[in-house]
Amino acid sequence: MERQQKLQILKDIININSTNGHEEQVANYLQKLLAECNIQSEKVQYDTDRASLVSEVGASGGRVLAFSGHMDVVDAGDTSKWTFPPFEATESEGKIYGRGSTDMKAGLAAMVIAMIELHEEKTKLNGKIKLLATVGEEVGELGARQLTQEGYADDLDGMIIGEPSGHQIVYAHKGSINYTVKSTGKNAHSSTPELGVNAIDNLLLFYNEVEKFAKSVDVTNDILGGFIHNVTVIDGGNQVNSIPEKAQLQGNIRSIPEMDNETVKQVLVKIVNELNKQENVKLELIFDYDKQPVFSDKNSSLVNVAKSVAKDIIKEDIPLLGLSGTTDAAEFTKAKKAFPVIIFGPGNETPHQVNENVSIDNYLEMVDVYKRIAVEFLG
Ligand SMILES: [Zn+2]
C-alpha cells in the first residue's frame, strides 16, 4: 500500500467522531476497506450505532494471533484549546493531529493495514491473524467483554493490543476495581440524635476498616509495583441540623496478581458483613467495575519475537515494562485458554489531551513491525 493511502486511512477514521459511541461508523469504514481487498469481516452489534469488528487472514490449523484495538475515543475537551480541530485530522511537521490519533486509531489502522498487506502480498502464514476491533474500551471495555463472552477470544494463542506504547513493549498492567458503599441511617433533629441513626458515622466505620486493610497489604509486584486503594468520592447528609439518613462513598483499587480482584472483593465483602452485625449499621456494597490484572510471561515467544522484530525494524533496544492503566486485555484474558498479551502500538504521551498527535514515522514503522511479528510468531 502506498504511504499516502496509509495516512489517508488514519485521517479518515480520526475524522469519524467516535467519542464514547458511534463506533459502528469506524467498523463500517474498516469493513469496506477490508472487503475491497477481498477480506471478509463480521460486525458484532453491541448497541445502536455501536458494533465491534472481527476479521481473519491466514490459514486454519496453526496458531492464532489477535490484533486488537478500540474504536472509541474520549471527549475532545475544550475544543478552543486545540491548534487543529480534533475531528479534522491534520498533518503538520511529521505528525498527525486529532482526537484518537495516539489513543488509538493509529494502532488500529496500522494493524488493519498490516493484515491487508500480508494478504495482498500472499505471504504464507502458518496460522491466522484475528482482528478484534472493539467498542467502549474507554468506558469499561464493553466490546472486549462482549466478544470474550461470545467466545471470540477462545482460540487465541497470543494478542497484541495496539494501545500507544511508543518504543516500549508493555507485558503487564494492574487491574482495577471501582466500588460504592451506601450507608442508610435514620433522620432526626440534631438536638436529639438518639432518635436517629447517623449514616455518616456508620459509613466512616467502613472507611476506617478499609483503610486499615489497604495499609496492611505488604505484597508488591516486581514489575507493576504496589497495590493501590483510594476512597475518591464521598457524600452524605442534607442539612446541617439534621442527623443524616444517607451517606455513600466510592473507592478505586489498582490490583496486582499478588493481591488480585477476587481476594480484594472478598475482603471488602467481609468488612461490610462484619460491620452490619453491629446495631443500627446498614451498609450496602456494590462493585461497579472489575478488571483483572494482566501479566504475561516475560519469556513467552510473543514477547521474544516482538522484541527482536522491533529492534530490527526500529533499530533501537525496546524495553519491556509494566503499566498502571487497564486495557481490553483485562477482559480478553478471561477467555477459556490462557495466552500472552503485549501492548505495543504507535503513539506518545498525548492520549486524552488537547492536541493529541502521533508521529507519522512511528505509525508507518508499526505496520512493518506488526507484519513481521505475525509472520514470525505464527512460524
Ligand atoms: Zn486506549
TrEMBL record:
It catalyses: N-succinyl-(2S,6S)-2,6-diaminopimelate + H2O = (2S,6S)-2,6-diaminopimelate + succinate. Keywords: Amino-acid biosynthesis, Cobalt, Diaminopimelate biosynthesis, Hydrolase, Lysine biosynthesis, Metal-binding, Zinc. Pathway: Amino-acid biosynthesis; L-lysine biosynthesis via DAP pathway; LL-2,6-diaminopimelate from (S)-tetrahydrodipicolinate (succinylase route): step 3/3. Pfam families: M20_dimer, Peptidase_M20. Its cofactor is Co(2+); Zn(2+). It is an enzyme of class 3 (hydrolase). One of its GO terms (molecular function) is succinyl-diaminopimelate desuccinylase activity. It comes from the Bacteria. GO terms for biological process: diaminopimelate biosynthetic process; lysine biosynthetic process via diaminopimelate. Its EC number is 3.5.1.18. Residues 171-278 form the Peptidase M20 dimerisation domain. Belongs to the peptidase M20A family. This is Probable succinyl-diaminopimelate desuccinylase. It comes from Listeria immobilis.
